[in-house]
Request: fold
Amino acid sequence: MEKEISFEKVDYDRDLELIHKWMNEPHVIPFWQLDYPIEKFSQHLQEALADEHQMLLLGSLDGVPMSYWESYWAKGDVVEKSYEADTFDQGIHLLIGDPDYLGKGYSLPMLEAIIEYQFQVPETPKIIAEPDIRNEKMIHVFERCSFERVKPIELPDKTGLLMFCHRDVFERRRQHDRHDKRLQAHT
Reply:
């Protein structure tokens, strides 16, 4: 059964309580470490929304919000100190917030959709990610989405695994996947 994937910009008033709830889910806490009281999280979210080098999004399936995304420019982010960042490199952070959506295979198609969106900036040569090095499930999803492992990096809040998704590799894989689907439809 296919579900419609959509993304919309986070709205502070509408989304504060929902995102705060997700940050306090047991599967999110170890990797995001933002399980703050609502007052402190409120300030964090306001600062994140005011940060012009990133865009915060809610990801939905069939109109139901179930994930949180941060699309950001690598230049101006703490990660740019870890590698030679291109001016138009973009990065992505994500979490599946609603536990009912875990383990159902939604992360990969949603990640593919957001990467396709980020590559709509024609100057962007690659998308980067730096998942927590302990988060093997997410690293596996990134690899299935054409990301390659680059190196472990030390960030203020974690040891991350720097990963790159190059435009040409992503587009080749997407074309191959579409071709395979057409073949399956004809057999």
Observations:
- The longest strand covers residues 64-73.
- The chain has one domain: 5-186.
- Helices lie at 12-23, 29-32, 38-50, 107-118, 136-144, 167-186.
